[in-house]
Amino acid sequence: MPLAPQHPPQHWLAQGRGSPRLVLVVVFVALLLDNMLLTVVVPIVPTFLYTTEYEGANSSVAPAQTEPAPPALKAPLFSSLFSYFDNTTVTVSGSDSPLGVPNGTESSLQPPSSPPAPSRGCLEGDEFLTKENVRVGLLFASKALVQLLVNPSVGLLTNRIGYHIPMFIGFTIMFLSTVMFAFSGTYTLLFIARALQGVGSSFSSVAGLGMLASVYTDDFERGNAMGIALGGLALGVLIGAPFGSIMYEFVGKSSPFLVLAFLALLDGALQLCILQPSRISPESTKATPVSTLLRDPYILVAAGALCFSNMGVAMLEPTLPIWMMQTMCSPQWQLGMAFLPASISYLIGTNLFGILANKMGRWLCSMIGMAVVGVSLLCVPLAKNIYGLIGPNGGLGFAIGMVDSSMMPIMGYLVDLRHTSAYGTVYAIADVAFCMGFAIGPSTGGAIVRAIGFPWLMVIIGVTNLAYAPLCWCLHSPPAKEEKMAILSQECPMQTQSYTKQKPLREFPLTEDSDVEENVE
């Protein structure tokens, strides 16, 4: 009778650590949590600031309109009372009877001076909501602005020490940011928490995407892996906004962030088991300098497509909830549910076109996607209620999924084709482009809405995407460098199945034996 293995869990982990699929799981979970935190605040922040600042200030001035009166009063403590039964203001003239609506003999009816805001009606304070567009936009943009500044440094760091340690640093910072969100009660603290999230997101996204590109060297497999990883991003966006609005409405502000903090701890445990972020494992090849990559016109075209397509949804995040509060009189739970069609369609688009884009041509997939983004944004202001947003937001999410699932593999392909196969720097550039959309979008979107209105904002960004779409044709057949011409196929450059790397793929994660082999070489 054969003996059972003594340590089956440890043996499974030792075998599994060499599998690229487990690396894909780690990146998927990291992107999922990052984007849940990214979008969970979208429906919470506008209503939280309105409740704490506008209603809080007005309640101190006119407490009689916000506090219910006791059932019986002997003295005339209030000069006027608002009747929710017939929407009239009743002036009480010294009655000893309990508070009731008089029959007209001891009271006079006056038009209401300031109608209250019913729980499911339009909110008061149009001027406050208009100004709030700018403040909320800056708060949302702070994450992307910080991430924009940190990304180049993270790209260089991954080339020096590998991907494992930066991934774990990203988890740690993300956990601190989530806890800070849960217990922040002022705009300043929310702003700091959002900026801190940008630092953690920079480490997680750059290291995660670079890690995937390094373990999946086949073009077809890399495209599928990127589609699955971006599916984690899409799932985070899908869950975040509806989850945040429902939990804030029925449980409280801190509840969604505490749940995310618990999930982040599980992600940290997963990284410790699979990646073992304790040792330095630099890239085997010297990376192309950032300045050289930024002078590559094909990389710039791909980065621009990522930037402008995501800028549309970035402009919607701070402005659409406030526009719904003003024009549709939407309750709190609908502010997050409005993004649900975009999230579901993005999840479908990234997984579907992770496979199809390689067959139909990634440049064509991106060009069609950007055109659909533009048309969808132009249709958003035509909606009269939340149901009218289903079509435009669904088309927007599906089209952005087409662009992202095509452009992320193209970035790795262009580095293999025209530069050295070290991916940390190029995915730092891709993340910078992504962050520029989420930095410029909210920060300028709020100001544009305040100046010319929400419909014109959608026209501007929609036309921009339509005008940029033809540039994706440039990625149809990018030329290879002379020294790589013999390696890559000439007939169908964008569908080359595999690349010859400077050295064979090493076991992942790196072990002591792999370092010895590298030194011998």
Automatic annotation (TrEMBL):
It is a multi-pass membrane protein. Residues 95-121 are annotated as: Disordered. It comes from the Eukaryota. Gene3D superfamilies: MFS general substrate transporter like domains. One of its GO terms (molecular function) is serotonin:sodium:chloride symporter activity. It catalyses: dopamine(in) + 2 H(+)(out) = dopamine(out) + 2 H(+)(in); serotonin(in) + 2 H(+)(out) = serotonin(out) + 2 H(+)(in). Keywords: Cytoplasmic vesicle, Glycoprotein, Membrane, Neurotransmitter transport, Synapse, Transmembrane, Transmembrane helix, Transport. One of its GO terms (cellular component) is synaptic vesicle membrane. Residues 23-480 form the Major facilitator superfamily (MFS) profile domain. Signal peptide: none annotated. GO terms for biological process: aminergic neurotransmitter loading into synaptic vesicle. It is found in: Cytoplasmic vesicle, Secretory vesicle, Synaptic vesicle membrane. The chain crosses the membrane at residues 21-45, 169-193, 199-216, 228-251, 257-277, 298-316, 336-356, 363-383, 395-415, 422-441, 453-475. NCBIfam families: 2_A_01_02 (TIGR00880). Belongs to the major facilitator superfamily. Vesicular transporter family. This is VMAT1 protein. It comes from Furnarius figulus.
